[in-house]
Amino acid sequence: MFIFLGGLVLIGLVYYLYKIQFINQAQQTEGVVTKNYIHGINKSDFGSTFSAEIRFIARDSIYTFLGPEGQLMKKGELVPVAYLADNPEEAIINTFDGYWLNGLIWCLLPGIFWAAISLSFIQVKRN
Asked: N or C: which end of the chain has fewer CB within 10 A?
């Protein structure tokens, strides 16, 4: 049981440390939502999704990026933005939904895989 819980903690810890490293190195600024894009309007898709375009100023230049999919925002809304000084094109919205939620959902996949592997070694005694 210790190995099972240790593996789950390790998976979460690796993700958490990666995210904290980014936040510690990131510059903080404020961005403004300029418009919303709709993706996947064809019939073979499982429906359409949308992303907000966010514009911000860094190093005397204007940058734009798409926010997380599925997060509809009002045009003109101000949002907190985090970006690395050497790569401002890879900016993110610095909120729980914009930064942490998507990665935490992706941590479920290795967590489920680890649970399946480690729990498969448990033997049940039969009478």
From this structure: C
